[in-house]
Amino acid sequence: MNKTIEAVTRDIIERSRPGREVYLQSMMDMQAQQPPKQRLSCGNMAHAYAACSTEDKQALRLMQSANLGIVTAYNDMLSAHQPLKDYPDIIKQAARELGSTAQVAGGVPAMCDGVTQGQPGMELSLFSRDVIAMATAVSLSHNVFDGVLCLGVCDKIVPGMMIGALQFGHLPVGFVPAGPMPSGLPNKEKAAVRQRFAEGKASKDELLDAESASYHSPGTCTFYGTANSNQVLMEMLGVQLPGASFVNPDDPQRQALTVEAVRRVINATYESSRYLPLYEVVTEASMVNACVALLATGGSTNHALHLVAMAEAAGIKLQWSDLDRLSKAVPLLTRVYPNGQADINVFQQAGGMAFLVHQLRGAGLLNENVRSLVGDGLGAYECRPEFESGCSGHRLQWVSPVTQSTVPDVLTSVDTPFSEEGGLRMLSGNLGVCVAKVSAVAEEHQVVEAECVVFAEQDELKRAFDAGELNKDVVVVVRFQGPKANGMPELHKLTPYLGVLQDRGFKVALVTDGRMSGASGKVLAAIHLCPEALEQGPISRLRSGDVVRVDGQTGELRVLLDDDELNAREVASYERTDRSLGRGLFQNFRNVVGSADSGALVW
User: Fold this and answer.
1) With the C-alpha atoms ordered 273, 275, 280, 281, is the resulting torsion angle positive or negative?
2) DSSP letters for 265-318
3) Which residues lie closer than 8 Å to 253 by C-beta, 6 or more apart?
4) Running DSSP on this structure, what letter comes out for residue 572?
5) What are the pLDDT digits (tens) for 21-72?
6) Where in the sequence is the domain holding 467, given as residue range(s)?
7) Range name among 126-130, 190-194, 470-474, 510-514 with the lowest pLDDT average
8) pTM for this structure?
């Protein structure tokens, strides 16, 4: 086993021991003291199955079979979640055929960052994760479920569901995705139209045509952002079936995978011979495996927040420094947009998760002492699902490892990596600590030292760009974008403008206490900066004209000033007055939210 993987796992276990022990004891106590259905009165039970069919009522009344709770993020506005509409019926029928039952326990909100990108509603995006966690807990609070199936795909939804499900870690839990939409307009072409629009060289109609040709049908967006990174993490955590992530919605395997998930969760319930609660699946070792896969694929920067938050919900203390150490040991094995030109469908065709796991296992980069819905260890995860020959009901099996990539310039081996290191870097210095995604940034753009221009709002940068004030080597600073200030919206709206400046030959970097999109691209971006400006972090003392160094290679973030001079400066003031579009309801969240490096949690 790789020594760094081993050491980081060991350090996390030791650091987490007090909190993890409390969590595990709580989960075991819950199973012992609050077993599902067993403590409910007749009135409680009658309410729980009043709307069920006669067949399901009888099964629930006898309390001798499993009852699954379905938590769904279905809505028909999000392309990734629209296919989930029929999943509850599929799950219920599959459960009946196994002598069990399933009920929709509840729904959770599911907003689309693509719709709210650059809009006021984006200020609710990160906080929606914790709302989803609470909604998941409310859904399961009836305590009539022996297992859980979470139906969700996109950015904050899967992490929120996982955080909520971990509060019921004494139950087996499975995650069921919907798969990516077929490939549309290539992402490179879409990005080019965005940049031309930013320069005034493309009309709004041209831009809308390009966006609509890219995001064009039911299914997850095909670039490798947070939604598709979620799928990688859920597989590596063992709560999603091997190879389930990137099967298209209309593929015959899609429904078979959903049915198989039902069977696996039922087989893992307390009354079965293979009880497998969530707390035995999400462990320090499986969390490290998730981190390794994220780094090897150049995944979303948003998971610097979500991984820490999900780990915390399981009593595990994961730190940015762990990700940084792992990144230096894990090679980059994929080139999927924005880290390349191909989309997630090409990744899947090349060998997908199965080949990735095969390579990582062979190099000793994954912990093997883990459990999943399909068994102990990771053997099944280097195999693609296949229909079992001669078996009725379209049962699936995992028997044949994927040992070769068919598209090596998209998915490569550990012997010929695209980079010796993973895609995420922690930066630190006299401005604080932050993260940067360097996997998508060309080597010649990974170090920028230039005078900064300071903004407090995204729209201020656009005005300066339009006025020609940024046509120079520049470190763009956008502050008061942290979780306490405004909920930490993504700043992906800035990407075309910064990309244009870089294409004009200027050295460009972004420094912010906000977030960039999971599709953060070719411009060096030092993001999630802590402490944030509203908490009087050093970023609040920066002035336009200060020279800032952003080094994505050595991990340095520094303003070239004497510390005494920087600390003596007056802190910039900032006052929010706009509370439209529901943002006023989240003031208490802004008051109590933790820092980005602790997962930006509100609990």
Assistant:
1) positive
2) HHHTSTTSSS---HHHHS-HHHHHHHHHHHHHTT--TTHHHHHHHHHHHTT---
3) 247, 385, 387, 396
4) P
5) 999 999 999 999 988 888 889 999 899 999 999 999 888 887 889 999 999 9
6) 425-598
7) 190-194
8) 0.95
| Tens digit of each residue's pLDDT (9 = 90 or more) over 431-460 | 999 999 888 899 999 999 999 999 999 889
**pLDDT given for residue 392 in this prediction:** 56
The residue type at 437 = K
Residue type, 24: L
If you write DSSP's letter for every residue of 168-188 in order, what string do you get?
TTTS-EEEE---BPPP-S-HH
Q: Are strands 508-512 and 524-530 parallel, antiparallel or unpaired?
A: parallel
In a domain, 527, yes or no: yes
- Both tokens assigned to 76: 């028909």
Do residues 193 and 168 lie in contact, with contact meaning Cβ atoms separated by under 8 Å?
no
Which amino acid is it at 86?
A: D
- Give the chain's end-to-end CA distance (angstroms, integer): 36
Stretch (H or E) spanning 550: strand 547-551
Count of residues in the chain = 603
d(CA 20, CA 409) in angstroms, rounded, equals 41
| Residues 444 and 487 grouped into a single domain | yes
Q: Indicate whether 439 and 383 sit together in one domain.
A: no
Q: Are 243 and 398 a contacting pair, CB within 8 Å?
A: yes
Q: Tell whether 351 and 475 lie within a shared domain.
A: no
Torsion angle of alpha carbons 137, 143, 148, 151, nearest 10°? Answer: -50
402 in any annotated domain: no
